[in-house]
From TrEMBL:
Its main location: Golgi. It is a single-pass type II membrane protein. InterPro entries: Carb_sulfotrans_8-10 (IPR018011), Sulfotransferase (IPR005331). One of its GO terms (biological process) is carbohydrate biosynthetic process. Its EC number is 2.8.2.-. It comes from the Eukaryota. Belongs to the sulfotransferase 2 family. It comes from Lanius ludovicianus (Loggerhead shrike). It is found in: Golgi apparatus membrane. Keywords: Carbohydrate metabolism, Glycoprotein, Golgi apparatus, Membrane, Signal-anchor, Transferase, Transmembrane, Transmembrane helix. One of its GO terms (molecular function) is sulfotransferase activity. GO terms for cellular component: Golgi membrane. This is Carbohydrate sulfotransferase. PANTHER family: CARBOHYDRATE SULFOTRANSFERASE (PTHR12137).
Amino acid sequence: YRQLHTKETRLSKFNQTEIKAMLGSYTKVLFIRDPFHRLIATFLQGMGINPSFSSFIQEVLDGGMHNSSMAWKPLVSLCKPCLIQYDYVVMFGFLRHELDHLLRRAGLPAGGLLPELTDSQVQSTYRWLAEQMFSELSAQQKKQLSHFYRWDLAAFLFPRSFLSE
């Protein structure tokens, strides 16, 4: 499908036949992350200019779906998992195990190519951080966040997500 490969990366620029041909010629991998953890990471990286996490969350909620940043927009609106049949879905926190499998599947040596990933340490740190930040939110904000990410929570299994509790 070389004639279809252009500098344009948005599938919406191609017709249905071209899209089907392109998607059929690739191994499709979707990397996902708990939406609440994505919000925490965005806030910590300074994209939220508000002084508190609660204020940042209110900014996200007030912006709604159409004005949301790619950093916290629901995954189903970005990746279209109902329309695109992904070959692999890899969840943040399980990267070491999943990437080893993907490399072996591609015929590459798994062990030496990846940096050391400490998934269990990352998971426990994020769990503690999420507990602290989730406690700052009002009951109304928690409810609104769960509603905002309802399709992500339905499409993907996020074990122990605060938004699904």
